[in-house]
Amino acid sequence: MIAGRTSFERADFAKLVELWDKFHSPRFRVDAELLQANTVGSPVFDWGASCIHWDNGVPTGFVAVKRSPAPGLYSGPDQDTYHLSAIAFLEPALGVDLLSYSKRVIAQRGAFALLFGQDTRHFFPGCPCDLPVLCNFLTVEGFEEQPEVFDLERDLQNYHPSPALETALAAWPGGSGQGKASVRTLTDNDVAALASHLQAEFPGRWQYDVLQKVGIEGPETVCGLFEGSELCGFALIQDSTHKLPVGGAVWRGALGSHWGSLGPIGVAKSRRGTGLGTALLSASLLELQRRGCRQTIIDWTTLDRFYGAQGFEVTRRYKPMRLQLG
């Protein structure tokens, strides 16, 4: 029987999911495949700072830590910032011990700060507000709260764009108009233009995440906003056929079998304020609807009015939390 603290090299993800489910509410449950993909499957998973505690062959606590993506994956957070990607424990004292171990390891490397979540292939953009045990635990450990963010959802079964958008959306496949702006899913021929657009307008995390998804799922995971032949906006969309759910799609268990996910989404600076962002959003939702998606999530945002205009409602709230180490 395994006993004491081990690395994730001996992880039994089926058993870890059982522990996860005991610690988190049903809305935040994941399956073994996702837990493995978003921990040890991540290119920035920190094997040395992550650990599992076992009692008679049963995991009773774990911490999963990730390094900053900089400079290896993309520019962004300071490379001395680490991420507490996930934690679960049966007893608070054990949680303290496990987190203390992780903090010692990263402090010896010169870590400057530890963020809860917000990592590459993240589960959480912050501590779930309806998980007070974890929020209180992190507060006692010295983590400081930052402004709240949230996820939004809606069922797309009866989704219809507002009449004011019909002209902008007329160029969508099946539409009857010949508007200058159009939205369509991308093809292999568009990937180079997408890479250039992301480099120019959204360098860093969005650029990395979107291009990685395109490499895994294919270019049709992106809806593109075009003016003529110029790509001037994008929206990442996901559905139940996807091999590597990211962002809000990690909550697919709570969303149901016909889940959908949208985001990130962005329009070139020169086109903002023209209504094209709303047109891109609406067209992307219609594409998800066409694929049979029902409950659809947009995660890690503060734009409740923008998405609320399309019928989305806040479902999960998070408190981003940061622990200063250096």
TrEMBL record:
Q: Which GO terms describe its molecular function?
A: acyltransferase activity, transferring groups other than amino-acyl groups
Q: Show the taxonomic lineage.
A: Bacteria, Bacillati, Armatimonadota, Armatimonadota incertae sedis, Candidatus Nitrosymbiomonas
Top-level taxon of the source organism: Bacteria
Q: What is the protein named?
A: N-acetyltransferase domain-containing protein
Q: Where is the N-acetyltransferase domain?
A: 181-326
Q: Which Gene3D superfamilies match?
A: 3.40.630.30
**InterPro entries linked to this entry:** Acyl_CoA_acyltransferase (IPR016181), GNAT_dom (IPR000182)
> Which Pfam family, giving just one, matches this sequence?
Acetyltransf_1
